[in-house]
């Protein structure tokens, strides 16, 4: 027995896939194909592949946004002394990225250089 | 007592000669009050008492200790070293066993001297260099484990400085034959390293096997005893397992003497290797036999007596002849492996085999094979394995990017199926044809693994491909639909190799988890686990009758496993590097193995003896293949050559019965087996060159070469001398050879990837 909510989810997916026909995600299709093959996933439907690329794009953008938030917090914390106007450009640091990725369960913390 | 102790590492020697109160410490962490060397000789009695005192103290027997201490002031006890040693159980290898060793081999002059190892090993090496050439090889082989254990002992006592010095002075001697181990040992610098490192633990926990002549062994013992090198004696006693062979120069090279660490003692190995095995050929299924005869007779008895009819009658004759030859050596139907009932494929395969037999080229030392070499270009170092189907219609390659690529060697399009198949609508071959893809390329890419593909095999009927990968799974692919049919999970670590059984249906995998497993195509979980290797299993192959599986491993041994029982029945030791490939001759009696040490060893499966060692390759050997008669062996290697070798099959080599009856008439064949085994032993004694046949020794170098070699020490000159058995070398253009096979018609096929 298929429940009503499952039917609804299927309908949503079908409608979403129709939209995938016209939208090409930022990640190039060749790159998506390469990584999907390396992971053992074979699919002839271009829209599914685009859906997966879109999900990846969202993940990357989420991580980047979180890292940016961490960077802002650090800036707020050390607001007083070392700030000149031209330092306003924000750069992605490994510290911010490590903290952001830790939230998603990816641990890239390495031991310090000097230990 | 403590105020008399001095740190060994500081080298301070406390002069307390004759004092009953100072107890030299047996404990490796502790201190030792070293006596001045001069006064040490007199009163060996006192030494014994001191050692016993310390033992009692370590065990916590206070009453006994105090009693002995008070009594020891009186001179009365006449216990000898031997008596004391007998009081303790002798032969377990462990920390407590060091106590009888200490008592037996106690030498005050070496105790307090941190340079003891350095000096005694140096003297040992000098002595070996000056001894007779006849014994040099085995003595060098024996000095290697002594070196390793001395180095580890120095580290365990905390003498890292001395250890590094020791390694620097004497390590280069052993790099030639044991380079990898020396490299690992150099990285160990503290006691904690030694305790944690897997290699050092392997050496400490297992005895190292060495084969020596009795004279050589006695020379060594006499040397060590005369000069009182008790530390070395202790090492030899505790860590070496020396097997003496009678006869003159039984040991012709260092590689021959070196048995290595097998997890068994030599006597255990010999006993182990005398288990019964059944090496007979597969019995012909009566259904298949009847069908083949019926088909061939149908063809032969046709009205129009054309070429096919004539061929069919000739095939009938060949069939009868083959059946007659195999009748003697075939297993009984009960002994053979259980297989699913035969289908048309087996009948067609049998007829194809008969045709191939008639057209087979007879190969031998005089008639060398033709080799068809397939070179893959533009693989950019990602090709990991390759194989060809038995009928040479398909070639498959596994890549580190997790896919398998299949090419049609006849340039036919490889057409899969379109959409889903409704079995109800398929009634004939045209229907099947109609639902296939209309057109396709002559190559296909199979995606499914999520890690690099390390091993491939195609079944005998070219219907299935099996692949194993770094992602711990093995996958079965259908070569009709070109899709993944089954995924087999069970290993916990990357799977290095996979092989189909010659009759199909079963396959075996070899993995990093030190096991090989047997699977059948219709069960998702393994049927048997073959556990016993001490390091990861690199390669696996089936015996032609499918009852046995041969595995080669990084622990330098090759093992033969009984598939039905899951037990190991033979252990073949002798390689000095990890074994990367094995091959069994089509008649099932001879096995060849090769790997990192660039030599190929040929073994007799029945007796477990090494028949031959073939040298000549200058790079690791990746693949081996026998000719159909079993008289020629082909090998492909990373040195970009394919070489062919002559396999001399002397009748004395294989004394083991080929077919062992396991029923009521077992009683008659058991005495036969017992009778032949002593014969096999006598062969070894009577001909000292039993295992390494003398005609195969490398040609002697010229005298100038020999002098240069001796001057440099026999270790230093490592130039590969080629065996006499080497018939021909085929060189490729920058293409290491990955895979070799011989077809039923004795055509050799090699596959390599062009590497710039």
From TrEMBL, chain A:
One of its GO terms (biological process) is transcription initiation at RNA polymerase II promoter. One of its GO terms (molecular function) is RNA polymerase II general transcription initiation factor activity. Coiled coil: none annotated. It holds the Pfam family TAF10. Its main location: nucleus. GO terms for cellular component: SAGA complex; transcription factor TFIID complex. It is found in: Nucleus. It comes from the Eukaryota. InterPro entries: TAF10. PANTHER family: TRANSCRIPTION INITIATION FACTOR TFIID SUBUNIT 10. Belongs to the TAF10 family. This is Transcription initiation factor TFIID subunit 10.
From TrEMBL, chain B:
The keyword Transcription regulation applies. Pfam families: TFIID_NTD2 (PF04494), WD40 (PF00400). GO terms for molecular function: RNA polymerase II general transcription initiation factor activity. One of its GO terms (biological process) is transcription initiation at RNA polymerase II promoter. Coiled coil: none annotated. One of its GO terms (cellular component) is transcription factor TFIID complex. This is Transcription initiation factor TFIID subunit 5. WD repeats lie at residues 446-481, 488-520, 530-571, 572-613, 614-655. Its main location: nucleus. Keywords: Nucleus, Repeat, Transcription, Transcription regulation, WD repeat. It comes from Coemansia spiralis. SUPFAM superfamilies: Taf5 N-terminal domain-like, WD40 repeat-like. Residues 1-45, 648-715 are annotated as: Disordered.
């Amino acid at each position: 027995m298929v429940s009503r909510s499952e039917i609804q989810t299927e309908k949503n997916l079908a409608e979403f896939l129709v939209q995938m026909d016209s939208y090409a995600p930022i990640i190039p299709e060749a790159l998506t194909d390469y990584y999907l093959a390396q992971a053992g996933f074979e699919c002839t439907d271009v829209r599914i592949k685009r859906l997966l690329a879109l999900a990846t794009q969202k993940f990357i953008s989420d991580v980047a946004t979180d890292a940016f938030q961490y960077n802002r917090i650090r800036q707020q914390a050390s607001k007083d002394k070392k700030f000149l106007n031209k330092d306003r450009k924000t750069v992605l640091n490994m510290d911010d990225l490590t903290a952001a990725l830790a939230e998603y369960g990816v641990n890239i913390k390495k031991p310090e250089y000097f230990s | 007592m403590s105020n008399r102790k001095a740190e060994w590492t500081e080298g301070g020697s406390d002069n307390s000669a004759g004092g009953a109160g100072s107890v030299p410490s047996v404990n490796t962490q502790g201190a030792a009050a070293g006596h001045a060397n001069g006064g040490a000789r007199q009163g060996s009695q006192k030494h014994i008492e001191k050692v016993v005192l310390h033992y009692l103290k370590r065990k916590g027997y206070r009453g006994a200790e105090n009693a002995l201490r008070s009594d020891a002031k009186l001179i009365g006890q006449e216990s000898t070293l031997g008596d004391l040693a007998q009081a303790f159980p002798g032969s377990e290898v462990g920390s407590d066993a060091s106590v009888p060793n200490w008592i037996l081999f106690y030498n005050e002059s070496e105790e307090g001297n941190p340079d003891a190892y350095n000096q005694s090993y140096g003297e040992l090496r000098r002595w070996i260099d000056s001894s007779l050439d006849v014994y040099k090889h085995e003595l060098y082989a024996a000095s290697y484990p002594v070196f390793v254990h001395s180095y580890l002992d120095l580290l365990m006592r905390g003498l890292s400085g001395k250890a590094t010095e020791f390694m620097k002075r004497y390590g280069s001697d052993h790099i030639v034959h044991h380079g990898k181990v020396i490299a690992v040992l150099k990285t160990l610098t503290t006691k904690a390293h030694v305790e944690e490192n897997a290699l050092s633990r392997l050496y400490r926990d297992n005895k190292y096997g060495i084969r020596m002549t009795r004279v050589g062994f006695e020379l060594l013992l006499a040397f060590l005893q005369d000069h009182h090198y008790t530390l070395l004696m202790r090492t030899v006693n505790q860590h070496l397992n020396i097997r003496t062979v009678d006869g003159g120069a039984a040991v012709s090279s260092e590689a021959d003497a070196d048995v290595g660490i097998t997890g068994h003692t030599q006597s255990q190995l010999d006993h182990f290797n005398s288990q019964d095995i059944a090496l007979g050929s597969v019995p012909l299924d009566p259904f298949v036999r009847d069908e083949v005869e019926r088909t061939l007779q149908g063809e032969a008895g046709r009205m129009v007596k054309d070429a096919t009819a004539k061929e069919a009658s000739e095939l009938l004759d060949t069939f009868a002849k083959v059946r007659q030859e195999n009748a003697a050596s075939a297993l009984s139907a009960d002994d053979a492996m259980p297989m699913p009932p035969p289908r048309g494929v087996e009948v067609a395969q049998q007829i194809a085999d008969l045709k191939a037999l008639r057209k087979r080229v007879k190969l031998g030392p005089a008639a060398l094979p033709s080799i068809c070499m397939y070179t893959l270009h533009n693989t950019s170092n990602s090709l990991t394995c390759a194989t060809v189907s038995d009928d040479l219609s398909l070639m498959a390659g596994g890549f580190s990017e997790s896919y398998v690529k299949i090419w049609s060697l006849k340039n036919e399009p490889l057409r899969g199926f379109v959409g889903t198949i409704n079995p109800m609508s398929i009634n004939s071959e045209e229907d099947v044809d109609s639902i296939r893809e209309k057109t396709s390329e002559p190559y296909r890419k199979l995606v499914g693994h999520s890690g690099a593909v390390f091993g491939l095999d195609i079944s005998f009927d070219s219907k299935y491909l099996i692949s194993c990968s770094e992602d711990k799974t093995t996958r079965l692919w259908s070569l009709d639909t070109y899709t993944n049919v089954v995924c087999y999970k069970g290993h916990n670590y990357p799977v290095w190799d996979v092989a189909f059984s010659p009759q199909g249906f079963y396959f075996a995998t070899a993995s990093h988890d030190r096991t090989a497993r047997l699977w059948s195509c219709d069960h998702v979980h393994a049927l048997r686990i073959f556990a016993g290797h001490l390091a990861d299993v690199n390669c696996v192959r089936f015996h032609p009758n499918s009852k046995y599986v041969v595995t080669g491993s990084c622990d330098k041994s090759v093992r033969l496993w009984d598939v039905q029982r899951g037990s190991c029945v033979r252990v073949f030791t002798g390689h000095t590097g990890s074994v990367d490939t094995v091959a069994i001759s089509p008649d099932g009696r001879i096995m060849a193995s090769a790997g990192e040490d660039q030599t190929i060893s040929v073994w007799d499966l029945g007796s477990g003896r090494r028949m031959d060692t073939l040298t000549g390759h200058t790079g690791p050997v990746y693949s081996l293949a026998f000719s159909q008669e079993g008289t020629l062996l082909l090998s492909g290697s990373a040195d970009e050559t394919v070489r062919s070798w002559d396999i001399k099959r002397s009748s004395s080599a294989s004394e083991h019965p080929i077919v062992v009856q396991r029923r009521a008439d077992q009683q008659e064949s058991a005495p036969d087996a017992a009778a032949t085994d002593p014969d096999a032993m006598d062969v070894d004694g009577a001909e000292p060159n039993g295992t390494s046949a003398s005609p195969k020794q490398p040609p002697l170098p010229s005298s100038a070469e020999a002098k240069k070699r001796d001057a440099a020490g026999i270790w230093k000159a490592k130039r590969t001398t080629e065996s006499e058995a080497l018939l021909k070398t085929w060189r490729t253009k920058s293409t290491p050879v990955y895979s070799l096979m011989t077809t039923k018609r004795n055509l050799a096929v090699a596959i390599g990837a062009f590497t710039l």
